[in-house]
Amino acid sequence: MARYFDFDTLNTNFRTECVAGLTTFLSMAYILFVNPAVLSLASVPDAGGLGMPRDAVFTATALAAAFGSLVMGLLARFPIAQAPGMGLNAFFAFSVVLGMGIDWQTALAGTFVSGVIFMALSLSSLREKIIDAIPADLKHAVAAGVGLFIAFIGLTSAGIIVNDDALLVGLAPLTDPHTLLAIFGLVVTVILMTTGVTSAIFLGMVATAIVGMATGLVGLPEHILGRVPDVGPVAGAAISRLPDVFTPHMLVVVATMLFVDFFDSAGTLMAVARQAGLIKDNKLPRAGRALFADALATTVSGLIGTSSTTAYIESASGVAAGGRSGFTAVVVGVLFLLALFFSPLLAVVTQAVTAPALIVVGVLMAGSLRHIDWHHFEVAVPAFLTVLLMPLTYSIATGIALGFIVYPVSMVAARRGRDIHPLMYALAVLFLLYFVFLRV
Question: Is residue 235 in some structural domain?
Fold first, then answer.
């Protein structure tokens, strides 16, 4: 095992890798409870049964995270864990299912198809061409926009931001006990994050749940350990809906899933690998394997019954604890399998408990704003529209589409048309046709 994972070359050992894996797992364990809440549309009281079965999604989330982390560790041998991605799950639930009215079974089929396409790109030379074609500013804008969108969902599910007939949205009176519990959780999580506490988001959720149970705002769980919830209601549901994916609306959905997953994964892989000192000559060794592992995990996620799986930036916490090899990710995968037996704790994970996690994750993703070239107006405008319109239209796809349409227009107006890759012109035309003929 030590030889396969290059312990000696990487100057690491079994104990260090185990501690690093545990650290990464605790840093991202919140996804076990947040992902089922998002995909079940728990924050939308009038969802009308559109959301996915929460217990089944819990099992699917754990299985997808375990598979993704194991394949990353064993195949690519990087200390990078995977799980259903924040932002991708929000797009799945709020933009596709709730916004476009597409049933979750078909959305899962779209997830599966996007994973298959991702695998094909990972095995071909098109990977580098696509990465080079999309301007870095728009990549950062998409990440930041998704962050604002997630934070907005968290604020509304906490009851902090509410509907206002005169102003569209407004600040709630902040007197509801559940809203106050969410605010408490947010303050605790912010303090933990600010002081550099490992697993701050997860510990913030634990503290909020404990206070909620102590005050009677959150019901006590009947058990701590229990049977693994049946994944049957969601597993394999995508297969029968594959023919429904090849419609204009769903092709836009698949393209958006692919875009967000592709660049989120590439960015996370480079960031964590750089921190671990694994970058050689400004290149990531075995990058193709890493992206293929991510794509394979997304494909399997669609079959298991959850939204796209992606590399987690929280893996950086494990690297900080000394993780250098793929064995760190293997440990994370095993821990996610063990977590399957803690499903009774879902009962205490209410909207007030998950809302702070959504808001803080949104803050972290919004950090990409600093990488955008705000000094050039022709770049700032499409980037700004991408970021702003995701939360305002309640649609990640709309934000991406409008940003990609405006970008070539503003660049040509600035006499920088030669700086635009031909693929960007093609994407702009396709998105424009989408709004003219398909958007309803």
Answer: yes
As separate numbers, helices (DSSP H) first and strands (DSSP E) second, the chain gives 18, 4
Helical ranges in 174-310 per DSSP H: 177-194, 200-215, 242-245, 248-275, 287-304
Tokens of 192: 């933990």
Residue with tokens 């063990």: 338
Q: Note whether 13 and 7 are within 8 A (CB).
A: yes
Q: In this predicted model, what pLDDT tens digit does every residue of 245-268 receive, in sequence order?
A: 999 889 989 999 998 888 788 878
Q: Which helix (H) or strand (E) holds 161?
A: strand 161-164
Can you tell me whether residue 278 is helix, strand or coil?
A: coil
Are the C-beta atoms of 88 and 150 separated by less than 8 Å?
A: no
Q: What is residue 409's DSSP assignment? A: H
Does 232 fall in a domain? yes
Rounded distance, CA 80 to CA 24, Å? 9
Let me know if residue 3 belongs to a domain: no
CA separation for the pair 299, 303 (Å, rounded):
7
Q: How far apart are CA 333 and CA 64, in angstroms?
A: 9
Structure tokens at 268: 């996370």
SS3 assignment, position 59: helix
Question: How crowded is the C-beta side of 263, counted as CA atoms within 13 Å?
Answer: 25
How far does the chain reach from its first CA to its final CA, in angstroms? Answer: 55
Range with top average pLDDT, 11-20, 21-30, 152-161, 300-309: 300-309
Helix (H), strand (E) at residue 326:
helix 326-338
Domain of 95, in residue numbers: 14-367
Tokens 């964590």 belong to 272
383 C-beta neighbours (distance < 10 Å), count: 30
pLDDT tens, 348-404?
888 899 889 889 888 988 888 999 999 999 999 999 999 999 899 888 878 888 999
Read off φ and ψ for residue 170, nearest 5 degrees: -160, 170
Separation of alpha carbons 328 and 319, rounded Å = 9
| φ and ψ at residue 82, rounded to 5 degrees | -130, 155
- What are 280's strand-pairing partners? 283
Burial of 133 from C-beta contacts in 10 A (0-12 / 13-18 / 19+): middle
- Tell me if 161 is assigned to some domain: yes
Number of domains in the chain: 1
221 vs 27: CA distance, rounded Å? 23
